[in-house]
Amino acid sequence: MGLLALVVKRWVPSIVAIPKPDETSRAFAIRAVAINGWPTFLGFYTRIGLNGRMLRDTRDSERMSEAFGIPAKEFDRFPDVWDKSTVVLVSERFGRRFIDLEQRRVCHHCVQEHGWSPLEWELKFITTCGRHGPLVSKCTCGKPLTWGDRHLLVCNSCAAPLAKSELPPAGTMNASAFQGYCLGRLGRGARVEVPLLDALELASVVDLAEALGALLDIGFANKVPGNASHEQRACWRDAGYLALAEPETFDLVNLAEEYRLKTGTVCPKRPADILGFFSDAKPLYDRGNELLVGLLLEKLAHGLGYPVHDLWVSDFVSIEWCAAAGRMPIPAYISALQEAGLRDKCMTYRDYFFVPVDIHWEVTHLNEQ
Ligand SMILES: [Zn+2]
Ligand SMILES: [Zn+2]
Fold first, then answer.
1. What predicted TM-score, i.e. pTM, was given to this entire model?
2. What angle do CA 50, 51, 53 make, to 5 degrees?
3. Which of 29, 33, 143, 280 is least surrounded, with the fewest CB atoms within 10 Å of its CB?
4. Distance, CA 170 to ligand 2 centroid (Å)?
């Protein structure tokens, strides 16, 4: 009986690791392996009963708690919940393209100081540590850091953790307002209120900021290159975020001017192109909310010098809308069209009468004079 008890007794790691409040399950796993001095990650996991898998769900947390001999509640508060292709961090859901399933990124100064890896380093759009500089994704031997490593600062090819002196020095940092906003949303920093963005999921905010930043930088009708560098994208996100956080600081006049130069018209048939609504910057129209669309249209109207209603959905507007917008009865509006010699440019379909957006502008402009 005594012998049997000895055989089935589960192996217990010698040093108990307890998750930090903002530590993800996989970051915790590497730390637990490292402090127990195990040469391989998977061996450690097999030994505590996880069959070589990553720590993924609450059942695994129970195994962990059993293995370490401490209460399960210590393991049921990881801030990450993994699905096949998404992860929910705190309460924000991120698709696969926002997270790195293979490669890890760390600030080695923070790891050396505090000994653990906080949840924001899981996200590709968090590229720097606000205190020390760019996050590092490679070991000093040149091999990438992965989620299978046995130590937070060392890849599996290296013999032992490196001394601080062998690691690159901390850089000087300009704090990124965009990253500050994201950290606030994730409960990892002071919350910054931006009404335009607060109603959106954080993943959408990232897309929007990058799209607007690129539009302001590259300009109208120039495709965002698919191979834009991580650094470039980070710059666009910063610029786009600042524009959305402080809308009075940016304008679209230059974009509108560029449109005029390229198309030779002051009355674009497709004003939507200027914003890249339907081509390059999809997030600008399908991830935004009414506040954002309103803001962009207002900026665009200012840039073009004529009123923009919902022109981005159509080249033509109905006579009913035109008359109401011009504060004229419909017959008076039609007379104004005829007097200006613009009646022939309008379109009829069955009982409907449509006015091209640029013609509507000319009529109301003439009428105001
Ligand atoms: Zn740091
Ligand atoms: Zn290495």
1. 0.73
2. 75
3. 143
4. 19
